[in-house]
């Protein structure tokens, strides 16, 4: 679906002389952090996807560049990091959002996305991620055809737990190590910040606090929240 569907979109854009195409790639096109040492991966760092999803997205990136070079199509992609927020409760980040919902509603919950709570991750609130896509779609043409998400903060999984327990004292969050887990490179988001003019406004503490308030508001319309 990623490869064939994206190819159809690009073909259609050329045929209809569309002004621009903006698409979502993923940081999963990159390899594990060990490939890059202590450095943040840039848009020029070598890709090395570790699963089929990342490989399919990398194929889309290469195809999009070909359309840009061969047909002059104005096409730009963004590689989201771990984007969290209201509205998604299935798939890769669905469990993360559901964990925050559990905390908000006083339920015991599990963090099961990593083997090592000390490993570092990059989160971006969905509103900030959306701002980047809007800027890429309707803003001026960009010098690059591909951007890492405009991330700023790097935290650990333990920081996630600690922050939620600070926001909700007594929150019951246990850790279960998965068979796989998140092991994708940390990225440099400065190019997107510079060219798209988007700097994330919401750190994890603020984003989680907003989600907790919204979950409680939703629940209170049906059931009282302790």
From TrEMBL:
Q: Which InterPro entries match?
A: Epimerase_deHydtase, NAD(P)-bd_dom_sf
Any one Pfam family here would be Epimerase
Residues covered by the NAD-dependent epimerase/dehydratase domain:
2-138
Top-level taxon of origin: Bacteria
The similarity annotation says:
Belongs to the NAD(P)-dependent epimerase/dehydratase family.
User: What is the recorded name of this protein?
Assistant: NAD dependent epimerase/dehydratase family protein
